[in-house]
Amino acid sequence: PIHEHEKREIESLLPKYKEAGIEIEIPQEIFEPGKCTRCCESGFRGETAVIEILEMTEEIQQQMYTDFSAQSIKKTARKSGYLTMWEEGVLKITEGITTLPELKRKVEKM
């Protein structure tokens, strides 16, 4: 089952996902990595990218000339589904691709 602290952490991000037009449900279970010889006892196999992409839309291009502040550009980008690396990682947790401890180890919370 999902740990209470993980559930709270994911719930704290729900407004940001909603703002970006993304609806997610908190799963009843979050996968824990198993250990075997195939993964060298790490519980993980391979790597998964957690990326943050800012799509340069026409609206953002125009905004860069008129209202060039990181806050306003981020707000505009959110309307197009922009997510930070941390938020993208939490989505991967809900999909069973990674775990919260692994995300915390690899990505600085923003």
Structure description:
Helices cover 46% and strands 0% of the residues. The chain is mostly helical and 110 residues long. The radius of gyration is 17 Å and the shape is elongated.
Mean pLDDT: 76
Structure annotation, total helices: 5
Using the alpha-carbon principal axes, give the shape. Answer: elongated
Class computed from helices, strands and strand pairing:
mainly alpha
- Total strand count, please? 0
| Radius of gyration, CA atoms, in whole angstroms | 17 Å
Distance between the termini: 26 Å
What percentage of the residues does DSSP assign to strands (E)? under 5%
What is the succession of H and E elements?
A: HHHHH
Give start-end ranges of low-pLDDT stretches.
none
Summed up:
The chain is mainly α.
Please describe the topology of this protein.
Elements: H1 4-19, H2 58-66, H3 70-78, H4 85-94, H5 100-106
Provide tags for this entry.
mainly alpha, elongated
